[in-house]
Amino acid sequence: MQILGVILVALVSVRLLQSIIAAVQSHSNARHRTQRTLQLLDEQIAAVQALRVQRESQQMHWNGYRKFKLSKKIKEARDVCSFYLVPHDGKPLPRYLPGQFVTFRFQVPDPNKGQMKSVVRCYSLSEAPREQYYRITVKRVPPPARTNIPPGLISNYLHDQVNVGDLLDLQAPRGEFSLDPANSKPVVLIGGGVGVTPVLSIANAILESETGNDVWFLYGVRCGEDHAMRDHLRQLEQKHENFHLHVRYSQPGENDLCERDYDTSGHIDINLIKSLVKVTNLDFYICGPPQMMDSIVTGLRDWGVAEDHIHREAFGRATLSKVANKDETQLKHDKLDSKKTLSIQFNRSNRNLTWDGSHNCLLDLALEAGINIDSGCRAGSCGSCEIAVKSGEVGCRVEPGINIDKGSCLACISYPKSELILDA
Ligand SMILES: NC(=O)C1=CN([C@@H]2O[C@H](COP(=O)(O)OP(=O)(O)OC[C@H]3O[C@@H](n4cnc5c(N)ncnc54)[C@H](OP(=O)(O)O)[C@@H]3O)[C@@H](O)[C@H]2O)C=CC1
């Protein structure tokens, strides 16, 4: 009887336990379902918001040039100044992606002709996206030592002639050297000298978005006097555990102190990157002097970093060596083509020139012969040098960073594949 009682109690307990487990499971399933539903709702809300922001941003986007007023000019280092620009019409600004640049059109005196001339230049935005203002950070370009080349026309004009309250003409931000912080992975940002500007914009944006993704920030400058944004970067380091800053001076000054002002001395190179970052499957963004970008990109490739994880800013003709996802065979073929001797007719200027392969691009050929073609970034990104090709075929040294009209080319990245008639 006692045994029967025990069995009965055991059976009842098992049933009870089973129903408790079932209840807990159904509760837990319900909780999971609720959590999943909430997660889906969150995702849908985020998607709707992203779409709204994108639509609003598209509505606020403008074509051509818009007037901006210089609201603030701040010295960041020796010969480096930040310029804060607010829209003159007081309307909101479109969102841009950190790392993008703006194109300016300046009216400056032409010393040769005694009248004003229009000059186009591109500058990276150096702040995380803001709705109220844009910020660029510009270094005064001195004349190169021991040559007759004049100092940087526009950088000196900005530093010396442009004052708070002045109006400037700007195109809307654009550029492929950028990322969306919301969808980003851990990144390695490498800036050399004033080339730090776009990577600073990217770092600020990622840290503000609070994704928690790791950001390695390697900054190479000559010495303390050139060290822009020093306090800002150290503050970021103190505030964000996921921000790993390393500053390297190539020529530390007498008053520069290692571990206080900078971390190590020398050039930023692949060995430093390997020692800090350790893994290759990250996104690498590099902007700085061309020789620095070249050696780092080569080092990253040799280390095994995938081509589509290497991003470099390409401003200026010296930075064009990056081959943006072009088919290698096609490229070899293009290179051979670019060496042919061909006749190039500039029909508006009524000039006929010969392409012998010694120029980097059609823009250089034209400018050297005194044919005036507008240009800005010199890297196929700003569109200033777009010209119509009336007949013939052109090749591109790199993929254009913007959409151009069919039958046109960007002179700064184009070379002839046949005899050409150009509308310039
Ligand atoms: N928004 C902007 O203004 C942008 C600027 N840039 C480009 O950024 C560049 C920065 O100019 P600037 O500030 O004058 O730079 P600097 O000439 O001051 O050079 C910056 C640092 O890079 C070092 N460096 C030179 N060669 C190498 C190398 N092979 N490997 C690693 N480090 C090297 C320099 O060392 P050392 O003492 O040996 O010279 C120096 O410490 C310019 O070429 C500019 O066109 C690019 C995009 C945007």
Automatic annotation (TrEMBL):
Listed cofactors: FAD; heme b
Keywords noted in UniProt: 2Fe-2S, FAD, Flavoprotein, Heme, Iron, Iron-sulfur, Metal-binding, NAD, NADP, Oxidoreductase
Presence of the UniProt keyword Repeat in the record: no
Domain of life according to the entry: Bacteria
EC id: 1.14.12.17
Pfam family, one: Fer2
Every FAD-binding FR-type domain range: 63-180
Top EC class of this enzyme: oxidoreductase
CDD domains the UniProt entry points to: fer2, flavohem_like_fad_nad_binding
Reaction(s) the record says it catalyses: 2 nitric oxide + NADPH + 2 O2 = 2 nitrate + NADP(+) + H(+); 2 nitric oxide + NADH + 2 O2 = 2 nitrate + NAD(+) + H(+)
PROSITE patterns per the UniProt record, alphabetical: 2FE2S_FER_1 (PS00197), 2FE2S_FER_2 (PS51085), FAD_FR (PS51384)
Domain 2Fe-2S ferredoxin-type positions: 340-424
InterPro entries: 2Fe-2S_ferredoxin-like_sf, 2Fe-2S_ferredoxin-type, 2Fe2S_fd_BS, Beta-grasp_dom_sf, Cbr1-like_FAD-bd_dom, FAD-bd_FR_type, Flavoprot_Pyr_Nucl_cyt_Rdtase, FNR_nucleotide-bd
Gene Ontology molecular-function annotations: 2 iron, 2 sulfur cluster binding; flavin adenine dinucleotide binding; metal ion binding; nitric oxide dioxygenase NAD(P)H activity
Similarity remark: In the C-terminal section; belongs to the flavoprotein pyridine nucleotide cytochrome reductase family.
Protein name: nitric oxide dioxygenase
Organism from which the protein derives: Rubinisphaera italica
Lineage: Bacteria, Pseudomonadati, Planctomycetota, Planctomycetia, Planctomycetales
